[in-house]
């Protein structure tokens, strides 16, 4: 473990790749680390070469541009794909708390089956780990055939697998549109798009107001061509089937999302999502300050140059606020330039880039405000509805914990165990916090990625016992 | 050609097979075990510890851990992020707990 890079970038999505490229063009020695076998992150997820796709960009805009950035980066930086980062530590620095000799150690597991531990050291760190889907629980949401919206999209973009034959799309937010349009174009019979927010339907979709008219019109045209109905103020409130999905209950909702009328729609697949949760475990491990985004979601707090509160640690993309791939890329570029400047290289300021970030961030804020999650979803749950899929904790157990005096998510978790399973609360954390009556908090996970005990055997610093679980 | 393949103009390398609880499942090279299973109409391959409920893909990107399988005796792998290799022997917990892998 001798080499110390100038900059380690975690995440090879739009933010991480743009940041790494700017930094390496400025002259820094950069390493890029990602758990996935291919670059792209979520938005630029693409088919492996073995598919020999003539038009790989047909599934989303901008892939060619991203791949050009990636090729340029590959010849300049060290690339570690298939490396899951489970912990980061910062060591050194002078006694006065300065950053002179400080380094960050990034602990990875390499390989997708038998994983090998590997540590990477760098003088600066850019965190660009993106987000995952934010599901809401409802009766039957754990039935096979119910997928997250992003999961359906990932199957298509990454494996060319259409999630189902007859598919319903439900949830809230602009992301439902590309998911439904992609499925329809790929041959699925999309039975309907049910947007819990947005009372006005597609004609007054907030994307139009936000200067994304062409994009929104494109999706609307695809949905119209395939005769896919789009209904605002509607949502799937229950999924049914014996051991796989056969139909869903779709409800018309009031302004608070309480069901006012229901009907049944037959389908074999449901793609469902209520926004995204930024992946903050690594910045939280390092002690980076967080703030609440427009919708109350915890995100990493950064200054105009994408510096976090911890010296030498930067963040970009969805970790600093959910805003889509374009914003992520612009933030990444800005971050890469700031790192280079902070490390003493001459990087001329780019006011146009800063303005672009501001403009896209304002757009993201407007969308958050247009698509809040309303409290009425709690009425969709029954006593036996699983809130936590991993530990199979039903709503009644969460209520019982509240009766026993649990007044926050942490004590609910201690009493009823939601969020204590394999996914470490990633899937249920938002719902559990809401049910406990508080805003979701930034995750405190000493191990950012679940690690099999066998893989820990070879680690340099065996974990302390209290590191295994986040109580 | 099926529609998604037309959409992107894909001409994939020849498919290979993996065995899932002894039964063959075709894989387009580069697909994950989970994608291949889902494409073959296999929607669930795990039973939960307490309720014995069927589970398969949910998040599709490696965060929910609903899709765990054993591949060539390596346990607890996430099917959705584990790329399939020719000859892989996949064992599911649906198989351990009695009923065979459920289709759709
Ligand atoms: C499943 C899913 C599908 C999506 N599909 C679309 C879409 O089709 N269209 C759209 O507009 N938006 C989509 N989004 C929204 C997406 O968040 C943004 O469009 C954009 O990809 C964000 O860019 P980013 O660079 O911030 O992060 P991402 O693109 O999410 O990239 C983050 C990268 O970090 C890596 N990573 C995370 N944690 C670790 C770790 N601990 N160790 C190693 N590597 C790690 C991930 O593997 C990933 O490659 C999707 C989101 C999700 C969750
Ligand atoms: S489907 Fe969620 S981890 Fe595989």
From TrEMBL, chain A:
Which terms does the record give in the GO molecular function aspect? oxidoreductase activity
InterPro entries linked to this entry: BFD-like_2Fe2S-bd_dom_sf, FAD/NAD-bd_sf, FAD/NAD-binding_dom, Metab_Enz_Cyan_OpOx_G3PDH, Opine_Oxase_asu/HCN_bsu
Q: Which UniProt keywords apply?
A: Oxidoreductase
Locate the FAD/NAD(P)-binding domain: which residues? Answer: 5-328
Q: Which residues form the signal peptide?
A: none
CDD domains, alphabetically? GlpA-like_Fer2_BFD-like
Q: What is this protein called?
A: Thioredoxin reductase
Automatic annotation (TrEMBL), chain B:
Entry keyword Methyltransferase: no
Q: Which Pfam families match?
A: Fer2_4 (PF13510)
Gene3D superfamilies per UniProt? 2Fe-2S iron-sulphur cluster binding domain, sarcosine oxidase, alpha subunit, N-terminal domain
Question: Which InterPro entries does its entry note?
Answer: 2Fe-2S-bd_N (IPR042204), 2Fe-2S_ferredoxin-like_sf (IPR036010)
A molecular function annotated in GO for this UniProt entry is: oxidoreductase activity
Tell me which UniProt keywords the record has, alphabetically: Oxidoreductase
Q: What is this protein called?
A: 2Fe-2S iron-sulfur cluster binding domain-containing protein
């Amino acid at each position: 473990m001798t080499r110390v890079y100038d900059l380690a970038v975690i995440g090879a999505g739009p933010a991480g790749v743009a940041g790494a490229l700017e930094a390496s063009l400025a002259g820094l020695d950069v390493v890029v680390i990602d758990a996935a076998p291919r670059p792209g992150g979520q938005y630029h997820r693409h088919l492996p070469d073995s598919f020999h796709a003539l038009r790989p960009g047909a599934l989303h805009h901008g892939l060619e541009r991203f791949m050009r950035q990636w090729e340029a980066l590959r010849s300049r930086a060290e690339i570690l794909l298939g490396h899951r980062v489970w912990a980061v530590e910062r060591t050194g620095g002078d006694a006065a708390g300065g950053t002179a000799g400080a380094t960050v150690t990034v602990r990875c597991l390499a390989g997708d089956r038998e994983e090998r531990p590997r540590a990477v050291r760098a003088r600066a760190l850019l965190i660009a780990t993106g987000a995952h889907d934010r599901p809401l629980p409802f009766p039957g949401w754990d039935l096979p055939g119910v997928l997250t919206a992003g999961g359906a999209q990932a199957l298509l973009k990454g494996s060319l697998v259409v999630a189902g034959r007859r598919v319903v799309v439900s949830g809230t937010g602009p992301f439902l549109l590309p998911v439904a349009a992609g499925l329809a174009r790929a041959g699925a019979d999309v039975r309907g798009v049910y947007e819990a927010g947005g009372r006005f339907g597609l004609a007054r979709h907030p994307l139009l107001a936000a200067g994304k008219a062409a994009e929104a019109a494109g999706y609307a045209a695809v949905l119209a061509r395939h005769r896919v109905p789009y209904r605002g103020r509607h949502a799937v409130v229950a999924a049914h089937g014996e051991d796989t999905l056969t139909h869903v209950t779709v409800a018309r909702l009031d302004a608070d999302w309480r069901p006012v009328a229901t009907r049944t729609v037959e389908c074999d697949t449901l793609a469902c999502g209520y926004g995204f949760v930024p992946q903050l475990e690594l910045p939280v491990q390092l002690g980076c300050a967080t703030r609440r985004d427009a919708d109350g979601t915890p995100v990493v707090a950064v200054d105009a140059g994408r510096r976090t509160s911890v010296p030498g640690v930067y963040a970009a993309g969805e970790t600093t606020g959910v805003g889509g791939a374009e914003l992520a890329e612009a933030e990444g570029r800005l971050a890469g330039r700031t790192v280079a400047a902070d490390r003493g290289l001459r990087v001329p300021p780019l006011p146009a880039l800063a303005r672009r970030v501001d403009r896209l961030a304002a757009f993201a804020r407007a969308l958050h405000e247009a698509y809040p999650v309303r409290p009425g979803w709690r009425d969709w749950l029954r006593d036996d509805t699983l809130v936590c899929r991993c530990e199979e904790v039903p709503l009644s157990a969460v209520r019982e914990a509240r009766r026993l005096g649990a007044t926050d998510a942490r004590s609910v978790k201690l009493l009823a165990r939601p969020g204590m399973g394999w996914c470490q609360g990633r899937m249920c954390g938002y719902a559990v916090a809401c049910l406990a009556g508080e805003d979701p908090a930034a995750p405190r996970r000493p191990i950012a990625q679940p690690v099999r005990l066998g893989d820990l055997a070879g680690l340099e610093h065996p974990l302390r016992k209290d590191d295994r679980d986040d109580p | 050609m099926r529609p998604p393949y037309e959409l992107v103009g894909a001409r994939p390398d020849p498919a290979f097979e993996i065995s899932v609880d002894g039964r063959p499942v075709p894989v387009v090279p580069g697909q994950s075990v989970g994608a291949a299973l889902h494409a073959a109409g296999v929607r669930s391959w795990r039973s939960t510890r307490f309720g014995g409920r069927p589970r398969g893909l949910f998040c599709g990107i490696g965060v929910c851990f609903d899709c765990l399988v054993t591949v060539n005796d390596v346990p607890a792998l996430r099917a959705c992020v584990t790329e399939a290799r020719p000859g892989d022997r996949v064992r599911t917990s649906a198989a351990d707990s009695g009923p065979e892998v459920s289709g759709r």
